[in-house]
Design a protein that fits this description.
Length: about 210
């Protein structure tokens, strides 16, 4: 049976899984809903995801939540190009990058800079103080990622991996904001990385642009 991915197309973490599925050439079904509208949730959502977040995943009656666990399962359970380095150090570096993105990148880059600079002004006023507070945190995260990628083409080595799939949706929203574009220019290795990954069909086919103003 085809796996089933549950969650909205606009979600960063749902898109991480979608990119992974496409990179592995895995056919799948998707159940979409608005995670911010509890009335739109599937009836069994809190059974699938006890925290009410997204995404969730099911394959042959095996259920998972948390994007990081889901992408590991996809890479190991299905045929297709490996999305994890084959050596312990490479896999450790990949996990390190994912941890940095989750712990230090997502909140300032997406929830503060993107939301306040791009999304919030459509229905009100941007919180300039929140943006200002997020800028040094995002800058520090980008510097750390630049140090980890070094002169490699991808975040965990010579090949596209789960680390890159994890980063792409965060960076795409971040770069919708002029503040994000400006910060990225200070890290040439990440500029080159973004230009490289942005051309992948998995990235282009899963892109969901922000709503027009």
């Amino acid at each position: 049976m085809k796996p089933v991915l549950l969650g909205p197309l606009y979600s960063v973490y749902v898109r991480i899984v979608r990119i992974t599925l496409i990179e592995k050439a895995v056919a799948y079904d998707q159940v979409t809903f608005d995670v911010f509208d509890r009335a739109d949730w599937p009836d069994d959502w809190l059974e699938r995801q006890p925290f009410g977040l997204v995404p969730a995943f099911e394959h042959d009656e095996f259920r998972l939540y948390e994007a990081r666990a889901i992408t590991r399962y996809i890479d190991e359970a299905f045929d297709g190009p490996a999305l994890q380095p084959d050596d312990p150090r490479g896999r450790a570096r990949m996990e390190q990058v994912i941890s940095v993105l989750d712990g230090q990148g997502y909140w300032p880059m997406v929830r503060q800079i993107f939301i306040e600079s791009i999304e919030r002004p459509r229905g009100g006023e941007a919180d300039e103080a929140a943006i200002a507070a997020a800028l040094p945190k995002a800058e520090r995260c980008l510097a750390a990622l630049a140090g980890l990628i070094g002169d490699q083409p991808y975040l965990a080595g010579p090949a596209f991996s789960r680390a890159d799939a994890h980063a792409v949706p965060m960076f795409q929203y971040f770069l919708e904001a002029p503040e994000g574009q400006q910060l990225l220019q200070a890290q040439p290795s990440l500029v080159a990385w973004w230009q490289r990954v942005a051309q992948r069909s998995s990235v282009q086919s899963t892109y969901v642009p922000p709503d027009p103003p």
